[in-house]
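[Target chain]
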Amino acid sequence: MQDKKRLVITGGGSGLGRALALRWARQGAAVCITDRDGEAADKVAEEVNLAGGESISVQADVTSEADWLTVLEQVQQHWGTLDILINNAGVATAGDFETESIEQWQWILDINLLGIVRGCQTFAPLFKQQGHGQMINVSSQAGITHLPSMGSYNAVKAAVIAFSETLRLELAPDNIQVSVVCPSFFKTNLDKSMRTAQPHFKAKVGRYFDRATLSAEQVSDYVYQSAQTDAFMVLPHKEGRKAWYMKRFLPNLRYINMMLKMTRPKK
């Protein structure tokens, strides 16, 4: 067995965060589960112990700098060090451009992007001090393939990719590895937190999740395997990898016309 890893996973009380915690737990890892829902975090922490790992749980909101400091204090108190920070917590938005309020944009920006920024700023000094560390930021296929009626979600997830690439370059001299995970739809509960002024989008997105080809457990296994390498862009879905290659290598106008054809509403 590899050396025991110590991790912090945000949004660890459900969905992909829970699956990631249990995946590392099976390797004997020590996992700090953070979530706004303290009871959910406690429950997953118990599951981590049963799966063969060690755990601590912290009720924390990624939009609160004070909560991030509490997470750091708990990690230092229990372990003194940390190997991996997984910024997983996130929410969803949808809606035509005209219907998305600035408040909705600010809400998702504060959680999905600035929540990650706060986490990285909190733990970067510790990683630099100890001479190593790994940051895994969870973005989305939406950060690469920008479907209509998802403006704020697409923009924020694309920003997570850009921020992660910036950190990858900036922190490399400090032996800090940075990667970004871009899953497509998989079976999870993200649609439950969705905000939209057009309720029919919840049902539409829910159908996408229902038809998903991968489970949270399969995505977490792909992330775990990628974390053992020096990969930057982590694309768990085969169709996601295909879409990424097409966007990279097709002439831009051809790609845009292809997307227009694929996303044009049916009459």
User: Anything to note?
Assistant: The chain has one domain: 6-263. The first strand starts at residue 6 and ends at 10. The chain has a mean pLDDT of 93. The radius of gyration is 18 Å.
